[in-house]
Amino acid sequence: MLCERCHERAATVHVTKIVNGEKTGYHLCEQCAKEQGEIMNPFIAGNAFDFNKLLSGLLNMESSPGYTPTQVNQLRCSTCGMTYNQFTQLGRFGCPDCYDNFASRLEPLLRRIQTGNSHSGKVPTKSGEKIQQQRRLEALRRELQKAVAEENFERAAELRDEIRTLEQNAGE
Amino acid sequence: MSLSDFLQRAMSRWMRDGGPDDDIVISSRIRVARNIQGYPFPILQTDSHATEVIQLVEQAMSTMSVNQLGNYEMVRCRDLSPLDRQVLVEKHLISPDLAQQDKHGAVVLRDDELVSIMVNEEDHIRIQCILPGMRLKESWQLATSIDDALESKLTYAFHEKYGYLTACPTNVGTGIRASVMMHLPGLALSGSIQRLLSAVSQVGLAVRGIYGEGSESYGNLFQVSNQITLGETEEEIIDNLQSVVAQLIGHERNAREQLLQRNRVQLEDRVSRSFGILAYARRMDSRETLERLSDVRLGIDLGIIQGVSAGILKELMISTQPAFLQKYFNRELSASERDIRRAALIRERLRQDDTEVHG
Ligand SMILES: [Zn+2]
Ligand SMILES: [Zn+2]
After folding, report:
1. How many helices (H) and strands (E) does chain B have?
2. Facing B37 at nearest CB: one of A96, A106, A122
3. What's the pTM value of the predicted model, to 2 decimals?
4. For residue A96, how far is its CA from the centre of ligand 2 (angstroms)?
5. pLDDT band for position A36 (50/70/90)?
């Protein structure tokens, strides 16, 4: 096979790297192996293995006649066809819908690798209109509680009106 | 072409210019990952998906709102030679993974190279802004304004609960990776670096050497970046990183001060020897180059070496890498030929400055 880095010379060296606890290997020509050894790339060492090869290997395995699914109701994304097993091997989802289709398995995973399980940052202007409104409503409700607690009833009445208008808009 | 002309043309602005705390902080980088709704992630992309994604990005790039943010040019990886792609990797403008995506990948570069947008890398879109010195907030401002401008034309894959959806769940939510490249020779010489860096990794940040193999880091260059992308806002992520970096800067300054007070002669000897080697050696490998450059930069920062521009570390750490050397000497070079040419380039570069070593 050809070297996976330069795609020019024959691959004679097999390099194994452990990235994020995952062992990955790739085939390099002698020169590229030297260059890679000489200096590490200035980016976090990516999973440089060949996704297509891995994927096709997985797909072949499933379509081969001797293959019997180990799990009958194996989790699969209905949009892109990726199975949860494939995801765990690749570490990458196949499409945006994978998040909903694998939601049951995703939550514990997110708890391990992230601090929370819901987004609190930036929201896109177009597709995020609903969320922006929700966040605005939540903020107004918090402010209302505070106004009531402080017996600032004039402000509370204003806030109540504002919340009602927003809720009506959302309902339409 | 003369070396100074070549470097003038080849250096991105982050390599030439300075910035706040640039005696310790080399650069501040923000990378934002986005995907387009309705398309599989690049890992499952067909040729036509990839082309459509590239066209969508190209259209979005040609809008007024984007053009107000600079002059951009898009190029597909397949239209770049492997050497040119490697030069972009060495300049930190694209990732090694994108350099290998010769079928589906593309890159958008702003003319000053402070902004690069990778298309069809791990995600459809990765906006990257890199500024010299400690300028994370400014870098984020730039990235988010380009993101907004693109979003006016594109529909992003966004989830009410999980935020911006990315191919890898380690990027989901904000999709942001903020990283600061630091030069920490004082902490390395005083032996406290490992303890400090492991403390940093306890607070949800990742630290790694920029160059080197395994746990070794050549040239005392480190990158500190956030690991968490979901559950915190972009501002919280950046503030957290910034405060940790500020502490590291404080420790590094202290370490340098202590070294000067306690081991002045050894320090002067070390940086002067390294300067001498860089100025006269006939063969230099990458590792020694980075280590000597680190010493010389420390000598400059502490006033021991004068007349050499402080930018020498940044400039030479990039321009002495394999693809850059082959670009400058305009031919393919074996590893041992590179060592000879590298030494020649360094000697020539140092002759341009009017140097004095004080002692
Ligand atoms: Zn090769
Ligand atoms: Zn899917």
Report:
1. 15, 12
2. A96
3. 0.81
4. 6
5. low
